[in-house]
């Protein structure tokens, strides 16, 4: 199966369920994986931002990668989240993690350091040279503090053969349009922003890595498939139906919002690792009301 076939459609940036003592809730993890696959999403992204990857390290991270691989058992493609703001450390992790059974790596652009565009390019060039798997780069300036420009992404797309896609979550349509217009044929633009996915696909993006689909996998992947088929009038109905829910999932931070939904659905506990914390009681009441509408 080609990379384009595997990663066109809806991927989920999956949550990591925790017990109240902070340990990983493996029983809920198993239940969630089955729920997502039954929801007909195209692929799963393990230990991205939504998976609270910043607080899962070392041997425990390997344990998560191995557990998800074994539970998925080849039913859908899987992507390992391995990124950071120390290029040499990311390269080391590429070498040391056992990624048997994985199809790609998602690697966020360097955060906190605020490198210039040349630094971002050199970071990804180093990852390209060291990677054991194809890479999806990830531009999310709201979290990293530094946007990857269209020019830099296009340079990476043309000069780094192992980087085949970008998860684009800048919300900057000028940047997005320049990427889609000028990218090489093999390179994919994937939405990383649930609320504007319909518009991005209309402009030429090839799918979504979603937060919302953690809770509504079937509905949101149906919406994406309708968009990809050019059935935008039908897709718009689903898009509009979930707009308020999407907004509520991010209003007090993510994954705080989406885990509130999953907890209300009985799929996992509403627990996190600090500094992430649950939504307020007031916002939870709003979420409970919104859930009744769908």
Short description:
With 294 residues, this protein is of the alpha/beta class. The chain has 13 helices and 8 strands. The chain has one domain (3-229): TIM Barrel (Alpha-Beta Barrel), CATH 3.20.20.70.
Account of the protein in words:
The chain has a single domain, classed as Aldolase class I (TIM Barrel, Alpha-Beta Barrel), CATH 3.20.20. Strand 3, helix 4 (87-96) and strand 4 (104-108) form a beta-alpha-beta unit. It has 294 residues and is α/β, with parallel strands linked by helices. The chain has helices spanning 3-7, 26-38, 58-72, 87-96, 117-130, 141-144, 150-159, 173-182, 197-203, 217-228, 232-250, 256-264, 281-292; strands at residues 9-13, 43-46, 78-81, 104-108, 135-139, 163-168, 188-191, 207-210. It is built from 13 helices and eight strands. It is globular and about 50 Å long.
């Amino acid at each position: 199966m080609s990379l384009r076939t595997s990663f066109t459609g809806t991927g989920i940036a999956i949550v990591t369920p925790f017990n109240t003592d902070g340990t990983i809730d493996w029983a809920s993890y198993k239940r969630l994986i089955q729920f997502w696959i039954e929801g007909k999403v195209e692929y799963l992204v393990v230990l991205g931002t939504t998976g609270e990857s910043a607080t899962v390290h070392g041997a425990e991270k390997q344990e998560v990668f191995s557990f998800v691989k074994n539970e998925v058992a080849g039913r859908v493609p899987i992507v390992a989240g391995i990124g950071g703001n120390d290029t040499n450390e990311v390269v080391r992790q590429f070498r040391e993690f056992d990624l048997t059974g994985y199809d790609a790596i998602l690697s966020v652009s360097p955060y906190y350091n605020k490198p210039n565009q040349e630094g971002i390019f050199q970071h990804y060039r180093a990852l390209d040279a060291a990677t054991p798997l194809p890479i999806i780069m990830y531009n999310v300036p709201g979290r990293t503090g530094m946007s990857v420009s269209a020019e830099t992404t296009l340079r990476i797309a043309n000069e780094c053969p192992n980087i085949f896609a970008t998860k684009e979550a800048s919300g900057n349509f000028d940047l997005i349009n320049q990427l889609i217009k000028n990218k090489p044929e093999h390179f994919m633009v994937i939405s990383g922003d649930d609320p504007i996915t319909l518009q991005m696909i209309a402009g030429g993006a090839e799918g979504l890595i979603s937060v919302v689909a953690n809770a509504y996998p079937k509905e949101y992947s149906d919406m994406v498939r309708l968009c990809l088929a050019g059935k935008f009038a039908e897709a718009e109905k689903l898009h509009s139906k979930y707009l308020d829910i999407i907004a509520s999932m991010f209003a007090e931070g993510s994954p705080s919002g989406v885990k509130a939904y999953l907890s209300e659905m009985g799929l996992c506990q509403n627990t996190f690792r600090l500094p992430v914390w649950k939504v307020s009681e007031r916002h939870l009441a709003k979420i409970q009301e919104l859930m009744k509408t769908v």
